[in-house]
Amino acid sequence: MTVDIKKGLMGVTVDETGISKVMPEINSLTYRGYAAQDLCANCEFEEVAYLILNGNLPSKKELKKFEKEERKERTLSKSLINIIKQIPRKSHPMDVARTAVSVMGLEDKEVTDNSPKANLRKAMRIFSKTPTALAAFYRLRKGKKIIAPKKKFTFAENFFYMCFGKVPNKEIVKAFDVSLILYAEHSFNVSTFTARTITSSLSDIHGAITGAIASLKGPLHGGANEEVMHMMKKIKKPENADKWINNALNKKAVVMGFGHRVYKSGDSRVPTMREYFGKVAKIKKDKTYEKIYDIVEKVMIKRKNIHPNVDYPTGPTYHLMGFDTDFFTPIFVISRITGWSAHVMEQHSTNKLIRPLAAYNGNKYRKVKVLKKR
Ligand SMILES: CC(C)(COP(=O)(O)OP(=O)(O)OC[C@H]1O[C@@H](n2cnc3c(N)ncnc32)[C@H](O)[C@@H]1OP(=O)(O)O)[C@@H](O)C(=O)NCCC(=O)NCCS
């Protein structure tokens, strides 16, 4: 009997969600009904985080309460700081994020409580503490002292402060905030589906987010923003770009930062992020990567009709902001924790164990021979 296998679950609808959707009528990614680019233009990241976690945009009062809670929870326990201090300095920060969230689960008194209220409280703690853990590792591996979070700063400002000891100008912070908004949620992508699959056995949110981080690390998913930067560094100069990308395509290479399972004629997040990439390049007085960006994009569209995804502009933007390349995907994590958490809560509220089937193509039945007869 032949079975119709949908490799990679391509085109398969496995469940319902009310969190986000790429709406064809406006050709855009929407969170809870709002277009991501409208949210970028009109909100700060904390408002969008609230929206994703709670379902609606906050009132002034609700936002104040949310921000107060987020800022209160930023501090890490002494034992988590000590664990981060012991992590080999050469580790990938995605593995540090994964370990940190796992340890947070060991320390969280509500770890086994999967009620909606407890899950929201736990989500807030993971959301607030993960940037602190990542920034601590960022400093330690450079031989610098850890900088404690400051309550007076917004989520974005505080991350810059904990990594670099200072907050850059408002436009740079806004560009970072915009990237966080664009990265916050994207329906049943591989890391979110991983989180939902873990949740479906009625496991806990710390486990689900730990697994999601491992999934996001891969270069076919979140890791693409780092690969984009590696590519741009290899290209080095705009004069090399045309030849480099044509050579890569002649060799049938997969070019990171291009293509998408859902968007086939352009990722709706790209124009917004491209605009902010340009703003940051202007402030930093460095147009090298912008020029490389445009040439590679042009060739990819002309030769393959494959368009950039959001990782293409975020990579060089984070580079110009001063972040190490291997910190690009961890920045994606600190934002996507909101989307993952909302999906964990949604999965709990309508749970059905996720357990697909596989068509067996292994050995036929055979009898076991005892060791001495094999
Ligand atoms: C994201 C991605 C995995 C989506 O893949 P998918 O939906 O499974 O589509 P496929 O990989 O089957 O791609 C379809 C065709 O386009 C080609 N293609 C897709 N993305 C490509 C890319 N970035 N560079 C070169 N060719 C690409 C494939 O080689 C394939 O060609 P073929 O039909 O001749 O074999 C894929 O586009 C990719 O690997 N992109 C690079 C990684 C990346 O940027 N990831 C971040 C996503 S947000």
Structure characteristics:
374 residues, mainly alpha, Cytochrome p450-Terp, domain 2, 2 domains, three-stranded antiparallel beta sheet, 3 strands, globular, binds coenzyme A
Structure description:
This protein has 16 helices and 3 strands. The protein is mostly helical and 374 residues long. The protein has a 3-stranded antiparallel β-sheet with strand order 1-2-3. Strand 1 and strand 2 form a beta hairpin. Helix 12 (238-250) packs parallel to helix 14. The longest helix has 25 residues, at 116-140. Bound molecules: coenzyme A. The site of coenzyme A has 16 residues, from loops.
CATH superfamily (homologous) name of the largest domain: Citrate Synthase, domain 1
| CATH level-1 class of the largest domain | Mainly Alpha
Q: List the bound ligands.
A: coenzyme A
Report the count of strand segments: 3
The helical percent reads 55-70%
Q: Identify the quaternary structure here.
A: single chain
Report the C-alpha radius of gyration, rounded: 22 Å
Shape verdict: globular
Could you give the distance between the termini?
33 Å
Largest sheet entry: 3 strands, antiparallel
Widest beta sheet: strand line-up: 1-2-3
Number of domains: 2
Question: Would you identify the regions where 5 or more consecutive residues have pLDDT less than 50?
Answer: none
What is the typical, i.e. mean, pLDDT?
97
Series of secondary-structure elements, N-terminal to C-terminal: EEEHHHHHHHHHHHHHHHH
Helix/strand structural class: mainly alpha
Q: Per CATH, which architecture of the largest domain?
A: Orthogonal Bundle
Share of residues in strands: under 5%
The number of helical runs is 16
Per the CATH scheme, the topology name of the largest domain is Citrate Synthase, domain 1
